[in-house]
């Protein structure tokens, strides 16, 4: 079931990538004219969605910090419980070792000494009976200590805690690094939109696909983990019972996880048996210590008896410490801290990271779609190259250049904004700025040369007209007739060039574009 839940974001990833593929395929055949102001709306949309994506990533960072703190509480509580279990296991081992290797061995040596013949048989029989009583109680105490230690032998969580520390040491900074990388990617997109950088937008289009894939996969992982942790937090005690080793009885786990007063401590009975046996052994050894020096004066029993009594006192101290260790309050408090850290702080962090990754995946998908639609239009600024008006005289002097200029002009529609067809945009001078500037300077120099030439022709035409007018006046005044051919009085005087020498201008509805301005 967790695998099925985790596959839901993977299916959404496939759908989103398929939708992006269809969109890119439709863009290949799109030639619909689009107004220029649509680029601005795309930039605003990209900026808003990018800011929302940054907010979602920030939510993920907050959730990651909560999850980290919750896991640290779980690991610290686990170390405390492991310390208690290790202390109980070690003290019972020391107790058992002391009773077996020291006290019993010394009692056996005393028994060999007490087998010797003596005059007071009644006292000897009483001494041997006390020694047998001490040996029997020592055996009982040893068995009780073994019963306490046996369920705890297979209970070790040190390896689990070590792996948890290593995993969290990698997970927390790794998640921070991934989310920080997504923030950097969003910053690159914002800079690309602000600076009109086509390279930055294309870079985001490529890296954004990887970010979308990673976000959807993280959503699937967080979804499965959140559901699993939620099920665990519904009944943590039952989970521990199922995960515990077979040597550990379920009543022991339920006692420490619930710490109910109505439940009896499963170790209390064995501890009481061991304590009673140690007390009986101590009383029996006090009898032995009184009788044996009288019956066996030259046997050197004082060191042996003192060693046995010292070991019995050590066992009493160990049992007192075990009584405090097996109390449920310390372990139950650590259990509550662990469950609170995992089920409150940790689960909240997981849910926040799930929401953040899901939102980031959706927003990144939208950002990749809009960015793939935008970078085709945003190449450079949409500036028109304005050209000064030229004299119509240049058309007569240089018709070829005027014809080339006409082929580079586009009509300007005064009733509406300029229309851009398909993916073709008008770019501002960028990489070829110097080349374009030199062309403009050459065109201006040529224009000034043409204007000077036209003015010279106009002055020459005016001088010829003035000479003709002066010649006619002299003919009327002197009545003489020259041999030259006079012009007809019926035809008006025309200046050289069209429009009677007046300057002609291009239409104000035309704007001149460079050939390299087309995308």
Q: Which class do the helix and strand fractions yield? A: mainly alpha
Give helix % range: over 70%
Summarize the main sheet: 2 strands, antiparallel
The radius of gyration is 51 Å
Number of strands: 4
Mean pLDDT: 77
Number of helices: 13
* Uncertain residue ranges: 381-435, 477-499, 501-509
Separation of termini? 53 Å
What order do the helices and strands follow? HEHHHHHHHHHHHEEHE
- Taken from the alpha-carbon principal axes, the silhouette is rod-shaped
For the largest sheet, list the strands in their spatial order.
1-3
Strand content range:
under 5%
Could you characterize the architecture of this molecule?
With 519 residues, the chain is mostly helical. It has a domain at 1-27 and 49-382. Helices cover 74% and strands 2% of the residues. It has helices at residues 2-28, 38-114, 121-149, 158-195, 198-234, 236-243, 250-258, 268-295, 302-325, 328-374, 393-397, 399-406, 433-478, and strands at residues 33-35, 409-411, 419-421, 510-512. The strands form 2 sheets. Strands 1-3 form a two-stranded antiparallel ribbon. Strands 2-4 form a two-stranded antiparallel ribbon. It is rod-shaped and about 180 Å long. 24% of the residues are buried.
């Amino acid at each position: 079931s967790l695998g099925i839940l985790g596959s839901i974001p993977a299916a959404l990833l496939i759908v989103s990538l398929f939708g992006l593929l269809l969109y890119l395929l439709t863009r290949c055949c799109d030639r619909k004219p689009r107004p220029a102001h649509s680029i601005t709306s795309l930039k605003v949309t990209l900026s808003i969605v990018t800011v929302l994506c940054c907010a979602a990533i920030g939510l993920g960072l907050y959730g990651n910090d909560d999850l980290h703190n919750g896991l640290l509480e779980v690991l610290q509580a686990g170390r405390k419980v492991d310390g208690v279990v290790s202390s109980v296991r070690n003290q019972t081992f020391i107790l058992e070792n002391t009773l077996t290797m020291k006290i019993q061995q010394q009692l056996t040596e005393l028994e060999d000494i007490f087998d010797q013949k003596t005059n007071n048989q009644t006292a000897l029989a009483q001494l041997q009976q006390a020694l047998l009583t001490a040996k029997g109680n020592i055996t009982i105490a040893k068995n009780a200590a073994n019963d306490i230690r046996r369920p705890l032998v297979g209970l070790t969580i040190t390896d689990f805690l070590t792996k948890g520390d290593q995993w969290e040491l990698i997970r927390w900074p790794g998640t921070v690094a991934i989310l920080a990388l997504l923030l950097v990617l969003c910053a690159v997109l914002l800079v690309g939109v602000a600076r009109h950088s086509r390279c930055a937008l294309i870079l985001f289009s490529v890296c954004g696909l990887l970010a979308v894939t990673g976000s959807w996969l993280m959503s699937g992982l967080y979804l499965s983990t959140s559901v699993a942790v939620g099920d665990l937090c519904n009944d943590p005690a039952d989970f521990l019972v199922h995960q515990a080793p077979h040597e550990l009885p379920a009543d022991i786990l339920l006692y420490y996880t619930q710490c109910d007063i109505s439940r009896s401590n499963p170790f209390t009975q064995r501890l009481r048996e061991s304590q009673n046996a140690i007390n009986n052994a101590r009383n029996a050894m006090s009898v032995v210590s009184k009788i044996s020096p009288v019956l066996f004066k030259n046997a050197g029993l004082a060191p042996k008896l003192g060693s046995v009594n010292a070991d019995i006192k050590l066992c009493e101290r160990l049992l007192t410490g075990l009584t405090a260790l097996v109390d449920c309050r310390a372990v139950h408090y650590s259990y509550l801290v662990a469950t609170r850290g995992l089920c409150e702080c940790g689960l909240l962090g997981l849910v926040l990271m799930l929401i953040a990754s899901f939102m980031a995946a959706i927003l990144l998908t939208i950002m990749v779609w809009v960015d793939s639609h935008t970078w085709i239009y945003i190449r450079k600024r949409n500036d028109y190259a304005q050209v000064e008006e030229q004299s119509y005289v240049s058309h007569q002097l240089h018709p070829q250049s005027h014809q080339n200029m006409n082929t580079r002009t586009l009509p300007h529609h005064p009733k509406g904004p300029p229309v851009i067809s398909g993916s073709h945009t008008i770019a501002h001078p960028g990489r070829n700025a110097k080349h374009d500037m030199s062309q403009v300077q050459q065109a201006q120099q040529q224009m000034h040369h043409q204007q000077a030439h036209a003015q010279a022709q106009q002055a020459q035409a005016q001088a010829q007209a003035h000479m003709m007018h002066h010649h006619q006046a002299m003919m009327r005044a002197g009545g003489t007739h020259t041999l030259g051919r006079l012009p007809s009085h019926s035809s008006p005087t025309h200046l050289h060039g069209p429009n009677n020498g007046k300057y002609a201008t291009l239409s104000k509805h035309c704007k001149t574009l460079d050939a390299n301005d087309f995308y």
